[in-house]
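Support request, please re-run this one:
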Amino acid sequence: MGHITISDTIAAPVETVFAYVDDHRNTTKYMKDLVKWQPTTDVTHGKGAKFAVGMKAGPTTLSSVVDINAWTENKTIAWTSLEGFKQTGKWSFKAKGGQTDVTFDMDYEFGGGIAGRMLGKAAEPIVRSNLEASVRTLKSQTEKLAKPRSGSGKSGTRARATSTKATGTRQRQSK
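Re-run finished. Output below.
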């Protein structure tokens, strides 16, 4: 089984970073080579949400269905695969003043016994590189969201999605 941990500090509040990761519509925007992260039920975030996942791995796409098995607002989003490509993962978030320490932690396994273990060992540098790029992209995208926009008091300002997890609803909020 392969294990990879990537950590970074993002110059954005924990609420911004967590809400961005928690919104399933953003996942393929920052996760390198992830081509599908689609809800399979009406639950689209929080514990119990399930997603069909597709990840490019060379000429093939690894597919799985994952279940969000741990979710604590502004702290943790974790999942495990129910079928397909075997993986468990976790995003951890920690407020650090107006910044966020973020950690992506993933265990994965290629089937096939010894051959699968050899494939996993050979694939680890590629998987690690992709995950490092994903965390860098998340950092870039959420830091842009956190920067104040000029003209924020004018009509026609852009709205951004924020999450209200206590009720499980999403609302639009002017920035």
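Residues 151-175 have pLDDT under 50 and may be disordered. The radius of gyration is 17 Å.
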